[in-house]
Amino acid sequence: MESKNEVHSHVLEDGTVVTHSHGHTHTHTHTKAVLNRLSRAIGHLESIRRMVEEGRDCSEVLIQLSAVKAAINNTGKVILQDHIEHCIVDAVESGDHEALEELNKAIDRFMK
Q1: Scanning 53, 62, 81, 99, which has the fewest C-beta atoms within 10 Å of its C-beta?
Q2: Model confidence over 31-69: pLDDT tens digits?
Q3: Is domain 29-111 in CATH 1.20.58.1000, yes or no?
Q4: Gyration radius of the chain over CA positions
Q5: Domain-wise residue ranges, the chain
């Protein structure tokens, strides 16, 4: 993974060279909400681990795992929305096709 302030160049299809840094493109408005959601999911997972240790009913454990899975997926949606609103808008404006390719890869992996 490249550092946030690393400057690099992209050659556009017409031969134009675009140089930029990713330092400015990773400002997000929902960071606190994402961290809160992740903290809640971690706490929920810890309680599920205790359920398993205590020998609780498998159906109860599966229901709780399903809730954590939904929470993680919803957190991913918030991150994706933030990424599109900030990083991808900047990437499109600067002609950064690599960022768009990386977004497509990330969406493919997230959706599996």
Answers
A1: 53
A2: 899 999 999 999 999 999 999 999 999 999 999 999 999
A3: yes
A4: 19
A5: 29-111
